[in-house]
Amino acid sequence: PIIESDENIETELINKPTKFWFFINERKCAGIVDYFHLDEEYGETLSDVAQLFSNYFASKVALPQELLFSVPSQSCSNLDLVTNDNIYAKLCNLDVDESAGPDGFPPILFKNCAVFLTTPLSLLFNSSLATGRMTKKLKHSYLIPIHESGSLNDVRSYKPFTQLNVLAKIMDSLMCDHLLKNFMSLTKQTSKKDYKITNLEAFKHNFQSCLISKGQLDVIQTDISKAFYTGDPQLLLGKLASMGFNEIILNWLKSCLIERTQQVKFSNSISDIVNVTSPVFEGSLCSQLLFMIF
After folding, report:
1. CA 179 to chain centre
2. Nearest-5° Cα angle at 129, 283 to 127
């Protein structure tokens, strides 16, 4: 039926394969799936479907909450995290094939204007760190439903792909670099008596022992994928503080975790804005590191 709807589509496959696959992908989104449902709730219009996905994705993350954690005062010097060289390197390494975020500015714009944007962005990011506040526009994201497994009509068969603003990605990458550097430094300072063996090392030791003795090793795998979204941000901040992380970093992370918003983008429709609070969020390198620490 797809081929019959366009008499020239067979010719296009040979002469213009890009146009052909664009035609096929359009039909996959618009023609094959006539409706979507979330349990007993059905959506037929694009706006209804976008809202169904929004309700489902929002149910997987922590509800908005007030962070009562108080960042302990420390006698520390101002943190000069972001330099012009840092910013310029991040701008030059942007993937120009990625889509624009909610602000509509594509990565290629920032990459081509890297020389002119380096200094202003350095001032902007350092100001954000110094005040311990992250602007709300950088905390907003689009979620794109991607089919994972199961029925194409079931909303629960999809996972979210996050589109962040380019500036948010740059700031996130810079913070991830700094957190990783500090985490490794703090880990090295841990005395040997406080050293804890990891699950991977324990498994490796037991596995090698079983191979030598020709014994049996039973393994139980625990799926903690849902835990990625439902952690307590107050516990995370408390753990980072106890590990000795800088007061400036803690204040900025606290601001980053609260008042986050997201919308589902489905075709040309966008769902209502949803407020979420979570120690981690999709599309963030920093979040993956925080989850490992948590």
Report:
1. 16
2. 115
| CA 152, chain centre distance (Å) | 24
Which pLDDT band, with edges at 50, 70 and 90, does 152 fall under?
confident
pLDDT tens-digit map of 104-146: 899 999 999 999 999 999 998 888 888 888 888 888 889 888 8
pTM listed for this prediction: 0.67
Q: Are 136 and 261 in contact (CB under 8 A)?
A: yes
CA distance 49 to 46: 5
Residue for token pair 């020389």: 115
Q: Is 136 exposed, middle or buried (0-12, 13-18, 19+ CB in 10 A)?
A: exposed
Mapping DSSP onto H, E and C, the string for the chain reads CCCCCCCCHHHHHHHCHHHHHHHHHHHHHHHHCCCEEECCEEECCHHHHHHHHHHHHHHCCCCCCCCCCCCCCCCCCCCCCCCHHHHHHHHHCCCCCCCCCCCCCCHHHHHHCHHHHHHHHHHHHHHHHHHCCCCHHHHEEEEEEEECCCCCCEHHHEEEEEEECHHHHHHHHHHHHHHHHHHHHHHHCCCHHHCCCCHHHHHHHHHHHHHHHCCCCCCCCCCCCHHHCCCCHHHHHHHHHHCCCCHHHHHHHHHHHCCEEEEEEECCEECCCEEECCCCCCCCHHHHHHHHHC
Which among 92, 48, 102 is positioned nearest to 263, based on CA atoms? 102
Question: Nearest CA to 132 among 257, 263, 264?
Answer: 257
